[in-house]
Structures are given as C-alpha cells and as structure tokens.
Amino acid sequence: MVTSSQDIRFGFDCILFEACNLRCKFCLEAHENTKIDLNWIHSIPQLLVDRFKEEYKKYPNTKEIAIRMWGGELFYDALPDTLFDEYRKLISNFKKVFKEVFPDITLIFLWVSNGVYKKTDRVLKLLHDTNSKLNISYDPIDRFKTEEQKNLMLTNAKYFNSLNLLEEISITLTKPNILEYCNNLTHLQNLQFTQKIDINYYIPNINWKTLLPSDDDLFLFFKTCLINKFYNILDLQKILNSFCFPEREKEFICGCHKHLSACKDCVTYNCVKTSSILPNEDFYGNLKISEDNVSQIKANLGKNKRGCVYCKYFMQCPRFCWTSILYKNYKTTNCPFKQLYEFLENNNNFVEEYKNAKNIK
Predict the structure, then answer these.
(1) Among 34, 179, 221, 311, which lies 20 to 30 A Cα-Cα from 131?
(2) 244-278: pLDDT as tens digits
(3) Is 173 within 8 Å of 221 (Cβ atoms)?
C-alpha cells in the first residue's frame, strides 16, 4: 500500500549500548549492562536495510533516511579512542549496504549525546569524517549531577553549534522540568543560540508518579514559550504555522509510523518497547500489537482518548505524541494544544508578533 505521493523522510534510531556517564531519572535504561557489543553494533546496518526492504513498499517515495545513533552516552571521556574507529566503520557499513539496494536515498547521520565530555577533538573529527551532526540533550532537573556537568554541556553545545555541527537540542517534558522551565526562564533563554529545540514527550516509566505531566502542565509550558517568544521550540512553530496557515499541509509532531528503532532484541515501530519498561498492556489495553498494526492502533487510541475528531482544530492540529498519553494512568482533561489554539484566537497580538519575527506577510 502506498501511503503518500509526496517525498518521504524516514527515520532509524539505533541504540548501540547502555553505558553512560549520567543517570537521568526519566531514562528507561538501568545502565546495568555496561558491555559494548561490537558484533551488535556492526550488525545494525544489515538488519535495518533488510527490514526497510519491506517498509519501502509502503513508502516508495522515500528520499531521505535520518539515522540517529544512541547510547547510553556515545562520547563520554572514559570510552577508548578505538571505539570511535568502530563508529566510523558503522557509518561506512550503512553507506555500503544502503547504496547496494537504495542508491537514490540520501542517508543523514546524527549522534544523540548528553554533551558531558571534555575530549571534544575526537568527537569533532568523527563528525567531520562521517559528515554527521549532533543532537544534544538538556534538562534542568533530574539529568545533571553537578553544575559543572550542566555548564560543560552548554559549552560543548555552543562550540559545536558555532561550527554548524549541532542539529538540535532535545528536552524532555517531565512535570519537574516543565515547572522549572516556567519558573526560571533562564534555562530556555540559555538555549536561544540554537535554531532548533526538539521536544521529547515523557513516556511513562518506572518513576512516572513524580514525572508524568498533566494537560495543564503541558499547556503552561507552551504558553510560557509563546509569551516569551521561544520560537525555536519546534512543536510551538508547528502549532503557530498551522494557526497562521490552516490551509497548508500539516507538520505532524508524531511520525512514528515511519520511524523504526533498533535495539538488542528487536527492530520495531513500537515505541513503548523501546522507551519504557512498563508492559504493552498499560498503554494498549488488551489489543494485540504487531509491527503491521501498532502505528495505526496508537493513532486510533490516541485520537479517541483525546477526543480529537470532535475538536474544531482537528484538521489543522499537528497532533500529539500518542504514546505519551496512552498510558493507563494519564488523565486527559483539556488538550494543551486546543488550549493553545484558543489562547491564540483570543490574543491575536501573539500571532502578529510571531509573523513579524518570521517575516510572514
């Protein structure tokens, strides 16, 4: 089945190992397995090209594949220099196996990192050798153990950004992080050097009772970003663009139907499996999940739980990360995106400020 006549950008997330120099409270990984399995790492390109042969039948207009490498932390100082040679081999293998089968698809390589390391020269050389960029993560609460670590991350992010090697900064919207962002604007002000701030919506995990945000928390975050003109928040951009130009094609927030994750025991569309230790049943109920139906089931359950089809903004809304709200203990009340659309309707000055900032006529 062909799902779109338009050019497609597909995505792969490759989880190379668990070893890490931080212990983020919201991380799904226990970091108990510190072994780096090179056989696994070098098997990933062939696993993904074999799987993508089937997916390509659904997405024959795929022009790009963004391939993100994850840890653990891939670059922390205690890792040996020889591992960086293995990273180069990994990228070479990706290029080789995909060129053989899909020569017309462009591969884009990204490395997800916490930015807490001092050996930046070897990271810089890797980025240059592999023509790749960094995604660096930042969170004010439950990420850094010391102020020194946070400052090191910011220094490194600014350094790589100055060299045009930083693709984006990612933040995770747990409840404590949202409240800290809204109560202390300095955190987001300190990230205004980057053009892109990507949002990771918190997918419930073992610590969900203290980390799970509410609908009102999420609305507070987006409203705060709007009022303070933090337009580099990508999802805020998508909502504002859809409000200013409702006739345009939507920029969906969730693209998990064309995004595969590779971890040690699977290649999957099921982001519950790769993002939480909680069972499928806590998100999907008694529905039987397969690789063929999981993306559609997520969307159907999410729209039903949210009440999307009855919303006046349904046709223009970029929609939510469904998995983040499907958890059985997530209580939907008043959709944060709906609240934001209503706020924009009643406060047109914020729309005009955005248009002026983006030079939109």
Answers:
(1) 34
(2) 988 887 788 888 889 999 987 789 999 898 889 99
(3) yes
